[in-house]
Design a protein that fits this description.
Elements: E1 8-9, H1 11-19, H2 30-42, H3 53-59, H4 74-82, H5 93-105, H6 116-122, H7 130-135, E2 164-165
Antiparallel strand pairs: 1-2
Organism: Ancylobacter defluvii
Pfam families: PG_binding_1
Protein name: Peptidoglycan binding-like domain-containing protein
Length: about 170
Amino acid sequence: MSILKKGLAGTPVKILQEKLGLPGDGQFGPKTEEALKAYQTKNGLAADGIAGPDTFAALGLYELILLKVGSSGETVKKLQTALSLTADGKFGGGTQKAVKEYQAKNGLDADGFAGPATLARLGLFAQITPEVVAKSQIAPQDAAPVEASAAGEAPAKSIWATIKGFFS
């Protein structure tokens, strides 16, 4: 999971809510969706009520950017360009392989996820400082239990490991 949408809960949702000026209860409900759509409309983004890498970058929430297979958009294009790949904006198997190779060559966890540590090393965003990288990680004991369907969808140290659904 590297997007936020209605029905999800966890630390990344709370961070998004606070950035949107909402009370940070950590549960993505109708008010969060409404505020996000308004922000997206005002800032020329697809007003779909789903926060992904491009929305996080626009909001300055670089600690929430986590690119993986299935991610798409301008942020993925930047990553692909930095890795000397064809920049189609779709994170597929070829991009994942290139990310893993880059990570292995640069002393990073070679997990194929392009999060703040990888993006900082690539120099994609000047705003991704060591402090931002630190904010993107949590100690494993602080992570909420991850639903079986979300297992393996985020690096263990990532704040994305706190995501869970609350609507059925």
